[in-house]
Amino acid sequence: ALGVSQRARMVDDGLKELERMLKLMNKYTASDLHLKAGNPPILRVQGKVRYFDSESLEGPAIERMLLEIVT
After folding, report:
1. Among residues 29, 4, 15, 25, which one has the least CA distance to residue 70?
2. Does position 42 have pLDDT exceeding 90, yes or no?
3. CA 52/CA 64 separation, integer angstroms
């Protein structure tokens, strides 16, 4: 089990990454953000799929990003 400080650090890191992606969505007026383990983040801009210039995300990284907003 994770300690309180470990969980807080994970949430903070995930929230920063999610915030970065949401800012890119705003910048490019994207309608959707797709997060799937094993793939890089994907934006839908004017109906077309656009891949982030980043490495593929692992399941735990996506979990960290979403942990704060779903709890």
Report:
1. 15
2. yes
3. 18
